[in-house]
Structures are given as structure tokens and as C-alpha cells.
Amino acid sequence: MQNTRTVPRSVAARTRETLTRLATERDIWLATAHPEHGPHQVPLWFSWDGQAVWVCTGAASATVRNVRAEPRVRLALPDSFDVVLLLGEARCFSDQDVPAQAADRFAEKFGWDPRAEDDAFVYLRVVPRTVRAWRGESELSGRVIMREGAWSAPPS
Fold first, then answer.
1. Coil, strand or helix at 105
2. Residue 53: is it exposed, middle or buried by C-beta count within 10 angstroms (0-12/13-18/19+)?
3. Cβ contacts of 35-39, under 8 Å, gap ≥ 24
4. pLDDT per residue as tens digits for the range 21-30
5. What gap in Å lies between CA 56 and CA 37, rounded to an integer?
6. Residue 101, Cβ neighbours under 10 Å: how many?
């Protein structure tokens, strides 16, 4: 069991550590909702380009269907103690229309290129509008490190 007593980090430290995790981690949970079908949550591989999260999923998936009906999404890194939550709007790109730099970064990170598959895939780009980060109860206060797309303590 992990020790839950922590020394609260500054907003700048939380921001730096969040950006490091976004640049290095593999998995993210993506939550969508459809007005008629309700919520849907899936774990996906992701890449971070410094401004947005990129994920890729099957073109016929519930995730894509939901995003097309309601682009507001939530993302979460998979750690329930060192929490990072992002809220933003997703934009769909077909595997034929995705910016090459984003698709190349994704393929390089995972050793898999959805553009080379027979089935159709859709890339989703999510620019966060709000980011919350906290490690344990001592950091609940001040957990919002991005509001309206602006970092509270701009990364240096």
C-alpha cells in the first residue's frame, strides 16, 4: 500500500510533473457521452504533442460516435493516488486526414501505425481546457492547474 501522506507540491511543480507524465505515459482513460446512449469510458494509448492529447480508435467505435454527437470529453491518467484529469473538446480526424506529424508521433511511440491497417481508424485530438492534478488529500486544495486553456503556473 502506498503512503498517502505527502508534502503538497506547488502549482508549478504539479504542472511540470503533469507535463512529464503526459509526455511519457502510455495509457489514458477517455470518457465520452452520447445524448441518447449515455456515458462510455475506454482506456486508450495516447501521445502528447505539447498542446493536445492524441488517441486513435476504430472508426465505427462508440467513442467516435459519441464525440461526433458531443465533443466534450474527460481524460484521466490511470493512477488513483497521483491524479491527473483533463477536460476538453475532441476533434475527429480520419486516418487519411490526420496531420502527418501527429500520426507519425503516435506510430513512433507505439510501434503501430493505424494508417497502415485495413480497417478504418479515427484519431481524436483533445486540447485541454481544464486540468486538475493532485497527489493525495493534502493537494486537493489548488488542484486546478489549467483554467480556460491557460496554465496557472506556465511551464518553463
1. helix
2. buried
3. 35/69, 35/70, 36/69, 37/62, 37/65, 37/66
4. 999 999 999 9
5. 21
6. 9
Is there a contact between 93 and 99 (Cβ–Cβ < 8 Å)?
yes
Determine how β-strand 27-34 pairs with β-strand 121-135.
unpaired
> Phi then psi for 45, rounded to 5 degrees?
-70, 150
Helix and strand element counts for the chain (H, E): 3, 8
CB 145 within 8 A of CB 131: yes
Percent of the chain clearing pLDDT 70 (strictly above): 97
Which residue type occupies 98? V
Residues 118-139, buried b or exposed e (16+ Cβ, 10 A)? eeebbbbbbebeebbbbbbeeb
Contact 155, 15 (CB under 8 A): yes
Question: Which residue type occupies 124?
Answer: L
Q: What is the pTM of this model?
A: 0.94
- Asked whether the beta carbons of 132 and 83 are under 8 A apart, the reply is yes
